[in-house]
């Protein structure tokens, strides 16, 4: 599956409850809840570079599928994890946050689950 591209956020669900559950401060949640993010994915075989820009914040993670890498979690901390590819999905576990990025056509759906709270964002290829 070719994940290469730039994806613009269209919709998101459960942003505020999810961010509260993972412990982000209220001021950061308030500032971030209405910002639209842009995700750029560069893929070369099993090697990926994910860059997510949300307002002034940029999270850049580089990894090779199936190998342990140090990734920046949404909380800002660095966590060692392995990202696996399963067809059109990338699967990861970042310190109790289960992440799935699924590409169907030009739609990238990111789902993060922490305890029983699911945060879902849907982005379209630019």
Structural write-up:
The chain has 126 residues and is mainly beta. It is built from 2 helices and 11 strands. The chain has helices at residues 15-21, 26-32, and strands spanning 5-13, 37-44, 47-54, 57-64, 68-72, 78-82, 84-86, 89-94, 97-104, 107-114, 117-125. A 9-stranded antiparallel sheet has the order 4-3-2-1-11-10-9-8-7. Strands 5-6 form a two-stranded antiparallel ribbon. Strand 2 (37-44) and strand 3 form a beta hairpin. Belongs to the calycin superfamily. Fatty-acid binding protein (FABP) family. It comes from Pelobates cultripes.
In CATH's first tier, which class applies? Mainly Beta
Please compute the radius of gyration using only Cα atoms.
14 Å
Q: What's the architecture in CATH terms?
A: Beta Barrel
Backbone structural class = mainly beta
The residue fraction in helices comes out at 10-25%
Determine the CATH topology.
Answer: Lipocalin
Shape: globular
Low-confidence stretches: none
- Elements, N to C (H/E): EHHEEEEEEEEEE
Instruction: Please indicate the count of domains.
Output: 1
Task: Give the overall average pLDDT.
Answer: 95
Strand content: over 45%
Cα(first) to Cα(last) distance is 18 Å
- What is the CATH superfamily classification? Calycin beta-barrel core domain
Keywords: Cytoplasm, Lipid-binding, Transport
GO molecular function: lipid binding
Subcellular location: Cytoplasm
Protein name: Liver-type fatty acid-binding protein
């Amino acid at each position: 599956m070719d994940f290469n591209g730039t994806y613009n956020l269209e919709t998101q669900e459960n942003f505020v409850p999810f961010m509260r559950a993972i412990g982000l401060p209220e001021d950061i949640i308030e500032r971030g809840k209405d910002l639209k993010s842009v995700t750029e994915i560069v893929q070369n075989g099993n090697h990926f570079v994910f860059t997510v820009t949300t307002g002034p914040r940029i999270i850049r993670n580089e990894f090779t599928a199936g190998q342990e890498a140090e990734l920046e979690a949404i909380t800002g901390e660095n966590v060692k994890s392995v990202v696996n590819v399963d067809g059109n999905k990338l699967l990861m576990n970042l310190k109790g946050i289960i992440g799935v990025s699924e590409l169907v056509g030009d739609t990238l759906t990111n789902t993060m689950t922490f305890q029983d709270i699911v945060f879902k964002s849907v982005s379209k290829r630019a």
